[in-house]
Amino acid sequence: MIKLDSQFIAQIKSNPHMIQQLFSGHFGLEKENLRVTPSGNLALTPHPPIFGPKEENPYIKTDFSESQVEMITPVCDSVDDVYNAITNLHHIVSLALPKDEYLWPNSNPGLIPDEENIPIAVYRNKEDSSRLYREHLATEYGKKIQLLSGIHYNFSFSDEFLKALFQTSRTENETFQDFKNRIYLKVAKYFMKNRWLLIYLTGAGPAYMEGFTTVSGAENAAENARILKDGISLRNSSAGYKNKDALHVDYDTFDGYIHSIAKHIENGQINSMREFYNPIRLKNSHTDQSLESLAQKGVEYLEIRSIDLNPLEENGIAKETLHFIHLFLLTGLLSENNELCPNNQQISDKNEELVALSGLAHPNITECDHSEVAFSEAGLKEIAKMEAFLTELAPKNDYLANVVALQKARVVDASKTIAARVTQEIKEHGYLTFHLNTAKTSFETADAFAYRFIGAEDMELSTQIVWKSAWKKGVKVDVLDRAENFLRLTLGNKSELVKQATKTSKDNYVSVLAMENKVVTKQILAEHQIRVPHGENHTQFEEAIMSYPTFSGKQIVIKPKSTNYGIGISIFKDFFTKEAFEEAIKIAFSHDSSIMIEEFIPGDEYRFLVMGDDVVAVLKRIPANVVGDGIHTVRELVEQKNDDPLRGTHHLKPLEKIQQGPEETLMLSQQNLSFEDVPPSGKTVYLRENSNISTGGDSINVTDQMDDYYKDLAVKASKAIQAEICGVDIIIPPNPKDYDSAAIIELNFNPATHMHAFPYKGERVLTGDKIIDYLFK
Amino acid sequence: MIKLDSQFIAQIKSNPHMIQQLFSGHFGLEKENLRVTPSGNLALTPHPPIFGPKEENPYIKTDFSESQVEMITPVCDSVDDVYNAITNLHHIVSLALPKDEYLWPNSNPGLIPDEENIPIAVYRNKEDSSRLYREHLATEYGKKIQLLSGIHYNFSFSDEFLKALFQTSRTENETFQDFKNRIYLKVAKYFMKNRWLLIYLTGAGPAYMEGFTTVSGAENAAENARILKDGISLRNSSAGYKNKDALHVDYDTFDGYIHSIAKHIENGQINSMREFYNPIRLKNSHTDQSLESLAQKGVEYLEIRSIDLNPLEENGIAKETLHFIHLFLLTGLLSENNELCPNNQQISDKNEELVALSGLAHPNITECDHSEVAFSEAGLKEIAKMEAFLTELAPKNDYLANVVALQKARVVDASKTIAARVTQEIKEHGYLTFHLNTAKTSFETADAFAYRFIGAEDMELSTQIVWKSAWKKGVKVDVLDRAENFLRLTLGNKSELVKQATKTSKDNYVSVLAMENKVVTKQILAEHQIRVPHGENHTQFEEAIMSYPTFSGKQIVIKPKSTNYGIGISIFKDFFTKEAFEEAIKIAFSHDSSIMIEEFIPGDEYRFLVMGDDVVAVLKRIPANVVGDGIHTVRELVEQKNDDPLRGTHHLKPLEKIQQGPEETLMLSQQNLSFEDVPPSGKTVYLRENSNISTGGDSINVTDQMDDYYKDLAVKASKAIQAEICGVDIIIPPNPKDYDSAAIIELNFNPATHMHAFPYKGERVLTGDKIIDYLFK
């Protein structure tokens, strides 16, 4: 018989909004990973300064040890969002670590130094309460045990849901906060009783390095490791990180809960609420975790502390696991009240210990009445509750049904559990080797995702890159308009609106309008003695030929306005007669009703990215091309080049694939080539005339090599138009020291930043970081 | 025989560019007008402070007297431009004078106070050299004579023209500056000899108030005036404002010129170059008019000082006159060198005096050889030169041919001259009455042109208005891109780019983008506790009806997205059922594939124009309407209302005419009316639902009456989005004290400013001035 709270379920079922709200809620994750060297030793380097002061970055801090990164997601409105958030944070941290450092993927450490050499997290202020607390823990519990890392899962119901439930289910004189306290206590009580099941299903730490601790019955494994026989989670066992005494508290009433914890503090068993290492805690976001403020303001969310890092997942936890934990908590809400037996805490503790140390052997589970039930039977009873309320409230949700089915199979068959699979991997590859391989693979995944912010792939790459940098530096991101790539970034009490990564409050409006207007741009640059190619647009033959004196004696190009392939173009690099000038205009007009006469500036095109007073990146842009090897056809060479994982289509990746369309065919034919020709070895074949990255062009980072003269010129041009963030296109002559021959082609007010961040060749420039630093300097 | 420099003419004729350059050049005007009361008395008020310090405003200063406004055009590249410039300045000054002050339109004053009560121009610093110079003049010449006002005409050839001429005509070892000096001296010499003709054709001051001066032979006229018999120009006669001694100088060489003036200074005849009141002066823009710097840097332009104010023209001078003066100077350039007789200065002075005092009688003109020639013969000889070189160099230019023909007719027939016509008017109406009527008509013209900047009618009204305000306040205006209304404003060493009047450097880029985005705007305002109507856009029926809980209990409008005429709209002002909600959505979808559900905010729409911390204007906007009189049809009432000279079409005037198109017909039909119906007296009939000024709506300035609460709200909204120049649209409820019912509909980042400057009802708000003050505060 499945014991669910039929009244609650009926109420919820009667209101489609409540059903929807039941399955939403607010989610947050906190995850710790030790930083390790390629050999699996604890990295003794400081917490990477790129993350800023750990006191201020809300997303990336250190836990107990300086070598123990803690990632904290913002509060998310769905499991999927929080999964993406922790994955993004994991990627961000992985890529920002010093070269050859990795995130250790297990809750149990790899190679660690002697107790005295384990570094406690360093704070700017030596008297920082966080530092003092850690020093207290080091004395009280030892440092080693503090290195056990895990995941905290924070959860609250949607307020609308609780309000609706309150309307129908409040007891007499009960306030809304009283009701919330009661509801969260009910869930906590369920959790306490049945947490053995969650540990069985999420535990992933059955092994540890010899010398880390001593657990009787653990077996030797390769690489000086020990494996708990049939074990699941060292961290959740009595050998894990727990209060010295079992601190039982009263879950029946909120007052009782508060008073029982107060008594533990009074007795000196713990110093403060913060030291109450219960597997689940009732928490309040207003507080600095003091019992007083919890008592006063009441419960706002639950913190589940017993989740192990899962080394089988690159980010430490599977999305299905996150959903399952949510369902587990909902089961607590929807279970019958009287199903929870009183004073079950020692029984639950015993079940937890058994499962943590030998869960894979399916030990019997002790019931409230001290009777024992077969493991699977006990587990399936709880699974059946989930199935039952899902059938009632979410009959069409196949995804959640599968989530439950997956765990159900694990309840039945221990070999399918995470712990069993981790044990298997360790036995096969060795404790260190398995985890280090996993760590390196995880790093490679992070690198492959470097330009993506998971869950924001619908936004522009430059916005995704800025978002990653924002989190890296502890800057909060609100999406104001997704389709428009409109973000608000907040650090401390300073907010900045950012649209499309580089449209910010730093630039003034009219200077953007000036950059948008080629006539105005050229005029202003020329007034500042900056060379710009003189150009004219003509629609009348008679007017066009009148401009001969203007261009006479210069190198010029005459072309139809809309040409892209060199058709109808005449280039005069030397003296030309008026007759030749007129003839060239005639040719251009034969291809378009509008023609351009422009000074020709020989040289290569470079993009300078200016922010404020600095050039933060310089890129050389080369038209789409392949280099022959004397063996492959142009088509084959294009396909090889397009294999680069950074090349994609539709601007979804930092570089674009080279196309094989009419433009490219024509460009080849002008060189007497086709896609089927085999170019000689070393010969560069261009497939486009224009150098845009968006048409398959190559980008080469030349920031460090660039002559300061041109960097100064770029900044000068940007200043001339009073721009702050500006993409300056400069043609640099074949002899770069021939400074006077250089010219500025264009100023761009919303310069692309991703092409600097992920160039075809050369170092990545962290343009996202530069933008964040620039906005919040 | 016409004596022209055939070599010059042949050179110019051979080069089409030189012909074009000959007829261009640089032009500037300086014009003085006395400020007078409606009775013709000198206005003794201070120089209007709206013009800023006279030391700093380059366009509007005072001449000798505080009551003598001096208008100075920028250097213009054509006669037409300089004509427009002086006309605009005249309009700007006219409209900025204190109420009931006018610009006296004659060179000779109206009623003036006793010598001691004539106010000398006041400067911030009592020791200002301009003040000290004026005090010197008052002592040396008396104040009264200083009130004679006139026009200075500054001219220089285009540098390209002079360079081309230099190539072919330089003498051995001659530098370009030597050449320029020589050319300008040649023109000056021609001018000195033939200036009697220019005075005859431009003189307009034959009369003066009794007591102003004494000229023998002057006749009494009505209103205590005196008229010179057959006189032309008191100011250019020996009774005018001249050096005490005739200061003859050497025009043969530049050195001679400099030395001869130096000698006059040495002799104490004048204090400095500044006091050299020659009818033409060779000048240099680098200098503060010192002889030393002229000697050093050479001549850059000519200043012609003998032009009288023409009271027959509302701006003081006809465009044809300006062109004629130009041709007169070109005649000087193109005349044969040897045609200029040596030591002709006393002869020229005598001719000048004769013509100034009795030119209408066509006195004989004395030639170099002291022989006398009949007046018309002498005049026609110079006119024939002009005709001759125009035939050679501009045979197709009918306009210039007409300019010459007009003056030729005046040479033949004195009654056609300006002086004759002015004499006639004075005799007919009286000296004071004629000039005061002229002054008032000129003011009315200025008022009718208040919203226009002559010569910039192709630009937006708001840009024209800003331009006028800029000049009023001494701010230089460069047009960077005409079609885009892109200006650069400069005051002192500070420049500001301004596009479309309100797009400036003061606003930051992303805040403009936030205003452009309704979603972002609403979100930010709501976060600042500012009420915005909640609205949703739907394309799916199923999704639309899901929003019932969001809107239930509110007043709402449901409408097809593209409706304008009320079709398919449902308004719920009270409780509505879900069924009614769904039905309204169904109706809306039957008219459009996209529908809007919006909170309905009852009340009137107001536009608040915010700049920085201030609301500078508030406008109530009322949809196009007419008020019945029980007599006329709607059509007749519309036509009456459209007669308002401020109503035009295509945004060329501040208000738009009410149309009689399908929208208006439909709107009438919804009220069971047609254009042929006669609405009862006092009944307001609306022809549009929307209140836009662009569809004939009325604008009512309510700036002063507006409740401060709403002004504060507008500023708060603008600050919330970090806007600086912002148009805030607020719906104010029927009871304006019901503050909580008000809501902000929209924030506009390029708010129209002309509708505040020229409202349908209420005072004009000088929004152009506000923008200038805001930019340069």
TrEMBL record, chains A, B:
<dbReference type="InterPro" id="IPR013651">
    <property type="entry name" value="ATP-grasp_RimK-type"/>
</dbReference>
<keyword id="KW-0547">Nucleotide-binding</keyword>
<keyword id="KW-0317">Glutathione biosynthesis</keyword>
<comment type="pathway">
    <text>Sulfur metabolism; glutathione biosynthesis; glutathione from L-cysteine and L-glutamate: step 2/2.</text>
</comment>
<keyword id="KW-0464">Manganese</keyword>
<dbReference type="GO" id="GO:0005829">
    <property type="term" value="C:cytosol"/>
</dbReference>
<protein>
    <recommendedName>
        <fullName>Glutathione biosynthesis bifunctional protein GshAB</fullName>
        <ecNumber>6.3.2.2</ecNumber>
        <ecNumber>6.3.2.3</ecNumber>
    </recommendedName>
</protein>
<dbReference type="Pfam" id="PF18419">
    <property type="entry name" value="ATP-grasp_6"/>
</dbReference>
<keyword id="KW-0479">Metal-binding</keyword>
<dbReference type="InterPro" id="IPR040657">
    <property type="entry name" value="GshAB_ATP-grasp"/>
</dbReference>
<dbReference type="Pfam" id="PF04262">
    <property type="entry name" value="Glu_cys_ligase"/>
</dbReference>
<dbReference type="GO" id="GO:0004357">
    <property type="term" value="F:glutamate-cysteine ligase activity"/>
</dbReference>
<dbReference type="Pfam" id="PF07478">
    <property type="entry name" value="Dala_Dala_lig_C"/>
</dbReference>
<dbReference type="GO" id="GO:0046872">
    <property type="term" value="F:metal ion binding"/>
</dbReference>
<dbReference type="InterPro" id="IPR006334">
    <property type="entry name" value="Glut_cys_ligase"/>
</dbReference>
<comment type="pathway">
    <text>Sulfur metabolism; glutathione biosynthesis; glutathione from L-cysteine and L-glutamate: step 1/2.</text>
</comment>
<dbReference type="InterPro" id="IPR007370">
    <property type="entry name" value="Glu_cys_ligase"/>
</dbReference>
<keyword id="KW-0460">Magnesium</keyword>
<dbReference type="InterPro" id="IPR011095">
    <property type="entry name" value="Dala_Dala_lig_C"/>
</dbReference>
<feature type="domain" description="ATP-grasp">
    <location>
        <begin position="522"/>
        <end position="776"/>
    </location>
</feature>
<feature type="region of interest" description="Glutamate--cysteine ligase">
    <location>
        <begin position="1"/>
        <end position="356"/>
    </location>
</feature>
<dbReference type="GO" id="GO:0004363">
    <property type="term" value="F:glutathione synthase activity"/>
</dbReference>
<dbReference type="GO" id="GO:0008716">
    <property type="term" value="F:D-alanine-D-alanine ligase activity"/>
</dbReference>
<dbReference type="Pfam" id="PF08443">
    <property type="entry name" value="RimK"/>
</dbReference>
<keyword id="KW-0436">Ligase</keyword>
<dbReference type="InterPro" id="IPR006335">
    <property type="entry name" value="Glut_biosynth"/>
</dbReference>
<keyword id="KW-0511">Multifunctional enzyme</keyword>
<comment type="similarity">
    <text>In the N-terminal section; belongs to the glutamate--cysteine ligase type 1 family. Type 2 subfamily.</text>
</comment>
<keyword id="KW-0067">ATP-binding</keyword>
<dbReference type="InterPro" id="IPR014746">
    <property type="entry name" value="Gln_synth/guanido_kin_cat_dom"/>
</dbReference>
<dbReference type="InterPro" id="IPR011761">
    <property type="entry name" value="ATP-grasp"/>
</dbReference>
<comment type="subunit">
    <text>Monomer.</text>
</comment>
<dbReference type="GO" id="GO:0005524">
    <property type="term" value="F:ATP binding"/>
</dbReference>
<dbReference type="InterPro" id="IPR013815">
    <property type="entry name" value="ATP_grasp_subdomain_1"/>
</dbReference>
<comment type="function">
    <text>Synthesizes glutathione from L-glutamate and L-cysteine via gamma-L-glutamyl-L-cysteine.</text>
</comment>
